[in-house]
Design a protein that fits this description.
heterodimer, A: mainly alpha, two-stranded antiparallel sheet, two-stranded antiparallel ribbon, 76% helix, B: mainly alpha, globular
């Protein structure tokens, strides 16, 4: 028994080492290629990378607020992934959540109602994708993307055509004061309240996933659908739960953006565009765990803001940050390579040890 | 009479917009039949459209530009193929990463080469054929011919059988002496090269310039077409026409309608149309059993 527990502890430790190597290795590969890219484009790569990685820290409030949205879209991707589904519809769920929150806020002026309505809207969209998958066999990747584009144009249409602000035609009607989430001051430091709220949502996700029957069903079904079925769980029901939860957090991402940061939606959706996809990288780097997602969302927020400061200072396109996160995501798809590299190193060390 | 005329216009427009959906779908059918799923078609469309525009802009050589697009597809296919076979990576995650990377790269290129964030200058396009007074790209009949050839290859040749065996039961295929990993890698490269041709078509045949997000989800509509066609290149011709028709309808309506705001609503048609069609037809499909699972040689 003692032997077994020490073995288990050893396994867990090396498992963490593998994860650390995977994450650091992917980041290093991404930064390496980004450096090469900047050099090829004729920019000073040293300055570029410094700005890309450091630019985010000039405004801590902005760094954490930006992290809030992709933390939520990170949950939108990671929870369905636990049940074996690829929800790349976080983008659309976020647009819908933002839109529904905005409209609820305008018509009721009630903050709580507006926030919940946005979450429910995202949840409904997630449920729709799950139902298409479970009952009609429609691949969730395809339906998610089709819904992303549908909601993209629908939101733009509604904002430009129906709910535009007569004083600022490129923006929607503003969220009324009574339904806004403001800032809190900690000494001299001002922070948008949405960041602590998102941490509450992270805890909620953690609780549901690891301390409720629903969470257990989701995790068990994703790990081993056949075994889960044999144990009396229902993998299809788990898919529906997981997509509802994921959709809810996707919707909340949009709600927090509109109710707590921008207070309107612009006609090109620039304040939300792309953050659903950023959530995929966040979820993968955070290894799908709510707590990991908190840290990886801050990391990706740092990259996004760093890209913006690089564009301002060096006039290098901020999309270098997108290319960089694309490479990181691709590198994170390769756990086997890191495992092979680690066991190769370990074998070499053992051989070297044996020589003494 | 006017209605009939605009209907004929629509049909020709549908032929124009079906090409990338067909080429992307045939390419994907080849690699999915071998067991590799590549959801990075969207990214290949973007990057191939970009590289062929660049080559056309600087050399004004359409043949070379088209070739560049195909080679771009092959290069991306090699990368994705390696990740999906020998490196045992997660194929969906790699495809997502590819799409994100392609978007970033395409904007970087727009900015550094032409100094704009929206679209490249206009470039020359492939000369059109005249059919009943309508301009038709030679790639329309070409893509249909490719579909027929690929169907013949997959179902009537020994090589095609070997390729399909890798996606049906890789262990049995290996036992029969087929090199599963190499077959999958080659299938992925060939599949991606067809997607590359589709991407080139978008920029140097149809639109005549590279615009940001020129692919606009077409890579995923091509994926929907793969499932709609039940992994059969001949049915994919029909699927591409149906999905292309939605696209044509959206373009046609926004030209005919006098309200510019409505254009945003019309743009929804291809996406909702695609979703509706796959929701109706998906149930009957049979997915290659080993699709998306890394093959681990014992």
């Amino acid at each position: 028994m003692n032997k077994l527990s020490s073995l288990l502890r050893g396994w867990r430790l090396s498992e963490y080492v593998v994860i650390a190597v995977e994450v650091c290795g992917s980041i290093a590969l991404g930064i390496g290629i980004a450096t090469l890219l900047l050099y090829t484009l004729g920019f000073d790569p040293g300055k570029g990378i410094t700005l890309l990685l450091g630019g985010g820290f000039t405004d801590l409030d902005y760094l954490l607020s930006r992290a809030t949205f992709i933390m939520m879209t990170g949950l939108a991707f990671s929870i369905p992934l636990m049940a074996g589904l690829f929800n790349i519809g976080g983008e659309g769920q976020m647009y819908l959540g933002g839109l529904v929150s905005l409209l609820t806020a305008i018509y009721t002026g009630n903050l709580f109602l507006a926030l919940i309505a946005g979450g429910i809207a995202g949840l409904t969209l997630g449920l729709f994708i799950a139902v298409l998958r479970v009952y009609r066999g429609v691949n969730e990747v395809i339906s998610s993307i089709m819904l992303n584009w549908t909601l993209y144009y629908l939101t733009i249409y509604l904002v430009t055509n129906t709910f535009y602000d007569p004083l600022a035609p490129h923006e929607s009607i503003k969220v009324p004061q009574s339904a806004r989430l403001g800032l809190i001051s900690i000494g001299d430091f001002k922070l948008h309240i949405i960041f602590p709220i998102s941490l509450v949502f992270i805890l909620l996700a953690y609780f549901v996933l690891y301390h409720t029957k629903i969470g257990f069903e989701i995790r068990a079904s994703g790990l081993a659908p056949k075994a889960a079925k044999y144990a009396g769980l229902n993998p299809e029901r788990a898919m529906i739960y997981a997509m509802c939860l994921g959709g809810f957090f996707g919707g909340i991402a949009g709600s927090l953006n509109v109710l707590g940061f921008t207070y309107y939606i612009d006609t090109l959706l620039t304040t939300m565009y792309g953050m659903g996809f950023d959530g995929i990288g966040v979820a993968l780097m955070g290894r799908g765990h709510p707590i990991g997602i908190v840290f990886s969302s801050v990391f990706f927020s740092m990259l996004i803001i760093g890209g913006q400061s690089m564009q301002m200072v060096l006039n290098a396109p901020k999309e270098v940050a997108d290319a960089l996160s694309g490479i990181i995501i691709m590198a994170l798809a390769l756990p086997y390579v890191y495992r092979m590299a680690l066991s190769y190193l370990r074998a070499r060390r053992m051989i070297a040890h044996g020589d003494h | 009479m006017e209605i009939i005329e605009s209907l004929i216009d629509l049909v020709f427009l549908a032929f124009t917009s079906m090409v990338p959906l067909l080429l992307g779908a045939i390419g994907e059918i080849i690699n999915e039949r071998s067991g590799v799923v590549n959801i990075g078609i969207e990214g290949i469309f973007l990057l191939s459209a970009l590289t062929s525009t660049i080559v056309n802009y600087f050399t004004n050589n359409l043949g070379l530009a088209l070739l560049t697009g195909v080679v771009t597809g092959m290069a991306i296919g090699s990368l994705h193929g390696l990740i999906s076979t020998y490196l045992r990576g997660d194929q969906i995650v790699a495809g997502v990463g590819l799409n994100v990377f392609a978007y970033g790269m395409s904007v970087i290129a727009l900015v550094t080469i032409w100094g704009t964030f929206g679209n490249s200058p206009s470039v020359s396009t492939i000369p059109k054929l005249k059919v009943f007074g309508h301009a038709v790209s030679p790639l329309v009949p070409t893509s249909i011919a490719v579909a027929v050839i690929v169907w013949y290859f997959l179902y009537k040749t020994g090589l095609g059988l070997r390729l399909r065996a890798c996606g049906e039961d890789p262990k049995a295929a290996e036992a029969m002496g087929i090199n599963v990993l190499r077959t999958r890698l080659l299938a992925t490269i060939i599949g991606a090269s067809l997607a590359g041709l589709g991407g080139s078509y978008l920029s140097i045949d149809w639109v005549g310039q590279f615009t940001k997000e020129i692919s606009a989800g077409r890579g995923f509509i091509a994926l929907a077409n793969v499932a709609f066609s039940n992994w059969n290149p001949l049915t994919a011709i029909l699927g591409a026409f149906i999905f292309g028709f939605f696209d044509a309808l959206a373009i046609h309506l926004s030209i005919v309608s006098l309200q510019p705001a409505l254009a945003y609503l019309f743009k929804i048609i291809p996406y909702l149309g695609t979703l509706a069609v796959v929701s109706i037809f998906f149930r009957r499909t049979r997915i290659p059993p080993a699709l998306g699972k890394p093959y681990i040689k014992e």
